[in-house]
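Materials and Methods. Structural model of YraN family protein. The 114-residue sequence of YraN family protein from Leptospira limi was retrieved and submitted for structure prediction as follows.
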Amino acid sequence: MQKVSIGKQGEVFAAAYLQSIGHTILFQNYRKRIGEIDIISLKNEILHCSEVKTWNEKNGFHPKECLHVTKRDRMRKVYFHLLQEIPAFCHLTPSFNLLHITEKKEVRFYSSIF
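The predicted structure was written out as tokens:
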């Protein structure tokens, strides 16, 4: 249960961070049968699809390593479902991002990582 709580707190920090740099949060935990995108936001005609990882760097590897081929494919498929549901988003440029929340509650934003 603690892991879920830490993850939810990380998503709150991530959303607040995105808003602080000018993003409009459109969806949080946008779920489809095939997967989920943690945060979908909009800034400057770019539709940001972000994965949030609350991560202790002592784990021995970087959270970017969690965005393996399967996870990236699922995020893309969820993105295409979103476009089918809301065709008005089709003109927006997509960006797939990672928001890493450190144990010190710092946010590291990696934009357009795939």
